[in-house]
């Protein structure tokens, strides 16, 4: 079962050297475990997605340039599709942004 992305979920770029947390700003009321739920609109460089260390394409700081989230949920928050742990976002520089680890914590029964 897919997990929904929430604020502080760790993201990685396959062209960057270090992960960075997602910052949710696209909506302010839907929460999971007290953290805002991410939508396809959480793709602003340096606001939602911070640099990923060094970029192997640019050979300099890996400043993300997100285009569009793919593999989103069929469900929406105020007309914006929810992000899942299987969601990816293409960067216009050439990398692919994906989830390192969901910030949701589950208790096994």
Could you explain how this protein is built, in words?
The chain is an all-beta fold. It has one domain (about 10-100). It is built from no helices and 11 strands. The chain has strands at about 10-15, 20, 30, 35, 55, 60, 65-70, 75, 80, 90, 95-100. The strands form 4 sheets. Strands 2-1-11-10-7 form a 5-stranded antiparallel beta sheet, with no helix packed on it. It has a two-stranded antiparallel ribbon with strand order 3-4. Strands 5-6 form a two-stranded antiparallel sheet. Strand 5 (about 55) and strand 6 form a beta hairpin.
Task: Name its key features.
mainly beta; DUF4280 domain-containing protein; DUF4280; 5-stranded antiparallel sheet; 109 residues
Write the SSE topology.
Elements: E1 10-13, E2 20-21, E3 31-32, E4 35-36, E5 54-55, E6 60-61, E7 66-70, E8 76-77, E9 80-81, E10 88-91, E11 96-101
Antiparallel strand pairs: 1-2, 1-11, 3-4, 5-6, 7-10, 8-9, 10-11
Number of helices: 0
Helix/strand class: mainly beta
- The domain count comes to 1
Largest sheet: 5 strands, antiparallel
Distance between the termini: 16 Å
**Strand runs, count:** 11
- Rg calculated over all Cα atoms: 13 Å
Indicate the low-confidence ranges by residue numbers: none
- Trace the largest sheet across and list its strands: 2-1-11-10-7
Could you estimate the helical fraction of the residues in percent? under 10%
Mean pLDDT: 91
The helix/strand series, from N terminus to C terminus, equals EEEEEEEEEEE
Identify the overall geometry. Answer: elongated
**Percentage of residues in DSSP E strands:** 25-35%
Oligomer: single chain
